[in-house]
Amino acid sequence: xxxxxxxxxxxxxxxxxxxxxxxxxxxxxxxxxxxxxxxxxxxxxxxxxxxxxxxxxxxxxxxxxxxxxxxxxxxxxxxxxxxxxxxxxxxxxxxxxxxxxxxxxxxxxxxxxxxxxxxxxxxxxxxxxxxxxxxxxxxxxxxxxxxxxxxxxxxxxxxxxxxxxxxxxxxxxxxxxxxxxxxxxxxxxxxxxxxxxxxxxxxxxxxxxxxxxxxxxxxxxxxxxxxxxxxxxxxxxxxxxxxxxxxxxxxxxxxxxxxxxxxxxxxxxxxxxxxxxxxxxxxxxxxxxxxxxxxxxxxxxx
Length: 302
Ligand SMILES: C[S@@+](CC[C@H](N)C(=O)[O-])C[C@H]1O[C@@H](n2cnc3c(N)ncnc32)[C@H](O)[C@@H]1O
Fold this sequence. Notes:
The chain is α/β, with parallel strands linked by helices. The protein contains eleven helices and nine strands. The N and C termini lie far apart (63 Å). S-adenosylmethionine is lined by residues 103, 105, 109, 136-139, 141-142, 158-161, 164, 186-188, 206-208, 228-229, 240.
C-alpha cells in the first residue's frame, strides 16, 4: 500500500524514496558496483515488498524502512551479491531462492537449459517421457526449468553439496514440481545413478570449470560463490567437466544428447574431450552475448 505525501508544512522534510534510491545509486557507483541504479532500485523494491517500483518515487520513506534500506545498501557497497541480499534470482520463468553457500544461477546458463528443454520437448512431442539428468544442479535452475517447461519429462538432479541439494528441493517444491528426483552424489563416482545407465535421453550440466590461475576478479563471485562451485580442478579447470562427460557417456542411451556449459576459452578443449569420450555431432553454442559457452554433443547411435 502506498503512503501519501506529508501535509504539515512545519514538519521537517520527510525523505522520499526517489532521494534514497538516487543516493544509494551514487554510493554503489562509487564502490564500483557494476549496475548501481538497478541494484538500488532492486533493494528498495525488496524493502517495500514490491516486484516493481513504478510510481514509488514521491512516496515518503517510513523511519524503519530507511534504516533497513541503508543496511542493505551498505552490504551491497561491500560487494555482497544482490541476489543474497534479496534472497532470490530470476532464471527463465522461475524465481529461485538463493542463499550463501550455493552458487547463484546466471543468465548464460538459461541458454544451456534451453538446449536441454528443446531436446526434451522434441522427444515429448513424440509421446515419450524424456529422461533428463542435471549434473551439478546447484540451486536447481536447469532441472526445474526442464520439469516445468516440459511436464512430460522425468528429471533427475545431482549435486555434491548438501546445501545445494536442500535448495534444489526447496525450489522444486516452490515451483510445484515435487516429482524431480534429487540426489546428493559425486559425479566422479562410477556408481553414479547406476539404475539409469544407458537409459537417459539428455544429460545437461553447468559444472565447476574455472582453472586455478583464473580466480574471478568480481568480489561477488570470488568471495561469495563457493569454491566447490567455481574451480573445476586440474591445470585447465576441466577435471570436473571431464568427469561429467564420462558420467554422461555412461548414463546416456545411444543417440542421447549431452549439453555442458564451459568458459569461452575452453570451447575447443570441450569438443576434444567429447570426441575422446565417444560423442559425435559436436557443436559449440554461444551465450546471449555471442561468446562460445556450451558444448552440445550426441552419443554415437550404435
Ligand atoms: C557452477 S555451479 C552450477 C550450479 C547450477 N548448475 C547452475 O547453473 O546454477 C557447479 C555446481 O557443481 C557442484 N559440484 C562441484 N563438484 C561436484 C561433484 N564432484 N559432484 C557433483 N556436484 C559437484 C557444486 O556444488 C555446484 O553446485
